[in-house]
Design a protein that fits this description.
heterodimer; A: 629 residues; alpha+beta; Aldehyde Ferredoxin Oxidoreductase,  A, domain 1; Aldehyde Ferredoxin Oxidoreductase Protein, subunit A, domain 2; Aldehyde Ferredoxin Oxidoreductase Protein, subunit A, domain 3; 6-stranded mixed β-sheet; 4-stranded mixed β-sheet; 39% helix; B: 167 residues; Alpha-Beta Plaits; two-stranded antiparallel sheet; two-stranded antiparallel ribbon; 8 strands; 28% helix; 18% strand
């Protein structure tokens, strides 16, 4: 088999013992890579009900069959564990140089067990693995950007792929992420905190081996075709103005999250738009390895109080610390994103946690004593300061909000859960779902929590497949969501970037051809689609095993009770009863019972019954992990 | 495509280059049938935060590498001026690498022989693959006179725009 390296490094951090294991062709065929292999290992190896920040949690890094080849956007890797933010399945995907370097170094998967007795980083120099102590050099001393630079200089190789944590990961802020290549994050569900809990500062990969594919000539031709298509209209949005083009598009729809999702229109939207950025702020576009798009729109602040701030500004961050905090001060936004990336907290969760804190502050739930200064919507300087407070855990409010919005609301009480904009504990991305009713369900059932990337359900509303304001046609809507969810499970397993999902004219069938060209494993589109569904079902089983219930598939309270006050989606809210009808339709279409538990028949259908017991999915004891101080 | 004979270089526009490494991948595949940025004749250089460019042989008129080679393994292909490295003579000593001011020569990881851009003339593809595949169309093969002409046109356009003298 080609594409896959088939090699796994299993590292017991407590003992320093390194086992080199192999994965079989059958395992690769069944679990593809990325998400698929990640959930299988987490299901098998993380003890049920374990504390995600304890040594028992297992941190998995893996790739699929494509990194190192010219397949567009193929240099991606995934990070998986039980999430300390949601208490459920944790997954985060990043790109940059790490996936390709990991592949050339020869590793398909790295499994980190237990906890190192002292802070270390792990260097994978091709087959050679070194666990290096770093309490004197990196831990507590260098942020993620500096760590990457230090490791590259130390080994005298500017191409080393480094995935590392900053201070927020070290002190286990629940929204901590991993950063590589400065601008790329394995962002969501707190994977950086798990890394910190294991006393691991960074994983570094140096690979000098060549990557061969099963059918070189055929694949080279196909790869070139796909690169050409990637240069055309299907990716124009990401190449031209970049994702911040969404700001004004969503403003027109009235779904641009503003002031902690209180409104869907922002009076200063133009100032944080892609159009304004291109005109005034962007100095350079950059790309990940093997990406024809180059979505990183780098903003550099030339003067003023944030002089020297530099960051790749995408839509999710321009909304989260921008409109969502009522802020249109681009230098402050840029500085905030830079801080998130350096200290390693997830930009989406960070912004939505800050906006939660701002609303709590204005409601007197979070006090001036806890914060130390005024934290009001629209105040860019306060927002930047507060981001740093969260990252460094340096004030009482910073520590509380570092639990994530749900953990903070649990702690603060006083009805603040009403405006904690999260699902399953994960903060919502940049869409006010009250104005896009298919997405309302899609985001709420998303396997890792409030997320737009598990099924992309917003596109059915925005493209007009359904009436975005009504909650009719539940069966039709859930069918669309489920098909897309299965396809996305594959995209996250290959792993390729969703920005190139449009380059495959024949969708999954064409991806199957590419998969076979690279790996030499014959599969059809139908085989893959079945695996996509199996992967999603296993992840659902995992969430249930860790104590998730039907209540976890509901939206933040605000979406049901607070109609949008203004703009093109004025008056829109989610009707809870109609929502439940759609949720039940989703469960039924998935082959799950009315509590959202897969039936025995469904487990059998996807070949999961050999290792999933229905009994495990109904934990008797209260098992759900909740972040607390 | 450029007309006329004479010295040519791979010209990479740093404003367009995103550092995506596609040029490296196709270069190594065209020459070896496998993907490896270690065995590439054009190399992406990224200097944070905003510099991206790819560098290959600059086809120097008075190339230091040629004089540096103790085995006399390096000659020039006229009229384009790119290097021909005689694999039978090259013993991988690396003197050429030390002499090249651009870091445009490397040792192949498998053969341990020096490699440098040959504009894909030794491959079955004949035409430079990096030029064909660069997603930003940032790479071209050009005579130096064309490069300077392009620069002049860009400069004059900008000047005229600033003066308000364009239609």
């Amino acid at each position: 088999m080609k594409g896959y390296t088939g090699k796994v490094a299993r590292i017991n951090l407590a003992t320093g013992d390194i086992k080199r294991e192999e994965i079989s062709e059958e395992f690769c065929r069944n679990w593809i890579g990325g998400y698929g292999m990640g959930i299988k290992v987490v299901w098998d190896e993380v003890p049920a009900g374990c504390d995600p920040l304890s040594p028992d949690n297992v941190l998995v890094f893996n790739i699929g069959p494509f990194p190192g080849t010219i397949l567009p956007t193929s240099s991606k890797y995934g990070v998986f564990a039980k999430s300390p933010l949601t208490g459920l399945f944790g997954m985060a995907i990043s790109s940059g140089s790490v996936g390709a370097q990991m592949r050339r170094a020869g590793w398909n998967m790295v499994i980190l067990e237990k906890k190192a007795p002292e802070p270390v980083y792990i260097m994978f120099d091709n087959d050679d693995i070194q666990i290096q102590p770093c309490s004197e050099t990196l831990w507590g001393k260098k942020d993620s950007w500096e760590t990457e630079e230090w490791i590259r200089h130390h080994y005298h190789d500017e191409r080393i792929g480094v995935s590392s944590i900053g201070k927020a990961g070290e002190i286990m802020v629940r929204i901590a992420c991993l950063t590589n290549d400065r601008n790329r994050q394995a962002g969501r569900t707190g994977m950086g905190a798990v890394m910190g809990s294991k006393n691991v500062k960074a994983l570094a990969f140096r690979g000098t081996n060549s990557v061969e594919v099963a059918h070189p000539k055929e694949f080279y031709k196909k790869g070139k075709e796909l690169i050409k298509i990637s240069m055309g209209p299907v990716t124009i949005k990401y190449r031209d103005l970049g994702t911040p083009v969404n700001v004004l598009e969503f403003q027109k729809l009235g779904i641009l999250p503003t002031r902690n999702f209180q409104s869907g229109v922002f009076e200063h939207a133009f100032d944080v738009s892609g159009e304004k950025m291109a005109e005034t702020w962007v100095v350079k576009k950059a790309a990940c390895s093997q990406c024809p798009i180059g979505c990183d729109h780098l903003v550099y602040i030339k003067d003023g109080p944030y002089k020297g701030a530099v960051a790749s500004v995408d839509y999710e961050c321009s909304f989260s610390v921008g409109s969502n905090c009522g802020i249109w001060d681009m230098p402050a936004i840029t500085r905030a994103i830079e801080l998130c990336d350096r200290h390693t907290i997830d930009g989406i969760s960070a912004g939505v946690c800050v906006s939660f804190a701002m609303e709590a502050f204005e409601n007197n739930v979070l006090t001036p004593e806890q914060v130390g200064y005024d934290l009001k919507f629209g105040d860019g300087d306060a927002m930047v300061r507060f981001i740093e407070d969260i990252c460094l855990g340096r004030t009482e409010a910073g520590k509380i909000i570092g639990l994530g919005s749900r953990g903070a609301a649990n702690y603060l009480g006083q009805n603040s859960m009403h405006y904690a904009m999260q699902v399953k504990g994960l903060e919502m991305p940049g869409y006010v779902v009250r104005g896009i009713k298919t997405a309302a369900l899609g985001f709420a059932v998303a396997i890792r929590g409030g997320c737009h990337l598990r099924n992309g359900a917003y596109q059915f509303d925005i493209k007009g497949d359904f009436d975005r304001f009504t909650q009719d046609k539940p069966e039709e809507r859930v069918k669309k969501i489920i098909n897309m969810e299965n396809d996305y499970a594959l995209i996250d397993s290959y792993i390729i970037c969703k920005f190139t999902r449009g380059i495959y004219k024949n969708g999954v069938d064409e991806q199957a051809e590419v998969y076979s060209m690279v790996t030499g494993i014959d599969v059809t589109g139908d085989d893959l689609r079945t695996r996509g569904a199996a992967i999603h079902n296993l992840a659902k089983c995992y969430n249930l095993r860790e104590g998730a219930t039907k209540a976890d598939d509901y939206l933040p309270e605000r979406d049901y009770t607070d109609p949008l006050p203004e703009g093109p989606s004025e008056g829109q809210y989610i009707d809870r009863d109609l929502y439940t009808v759609m949720l039940d339709a989703y469960y039924s279409e998935r082959g799950w019972d009315s509590d959202g538990v897969p039936t025995q028949e469904t487990l059998d259908k996807y070949g999961l019954s050999s290792f999933v017991n229905l009994d495990d999915l109904h934990p008797i004891e209260e098992r759900r992990y909740m972040p607390c101080l | 495509m450029s007309v006329g004979k004479g010295r040519k270089i791979l010209y990479v526009d740093p404003d367009l280059c995103t550092g995506c490494e596609v040029c490296e991948s196709v270069c190594s595949f065209a020459h070896d049938g496998a993907y490896n940025p270690m065995n590439t004749r054009i190399t992406r250089v990224r200097i944070e935060p905003v510099t991206n460019i790819a560098i290959g042989c600059q086809t120097c008129s008075d190339a230091a590498c040629i004089g540096a080679c103790p085995q006399k393994a390096i000659t020039k292909k006229e009229p384009e001026n790119f290097l021909i490295i005689n694999e039978n003579k090259c013993d991988g000593c690396g003197f050429c690498i030390r002499a090249c001011p651009f870091g445009a020569i490397t040792l192949h990881t498998k053969t341990n022989k020096a490699i440098s851009c040959d504009l894909c003339t030794t491959t079955e593809y004949k035409e430079p693959q990096c030029v064909e595949c660069c997603p930003k169309e940032a790479i071209r093969v050009a005579h130096l006179v064309e490069v300077s002409e392009d620069k002049r046109i860009v400069a004059v356009k900008k000047l005229m725009e600033n003066l308000g003298k364009t239609l």
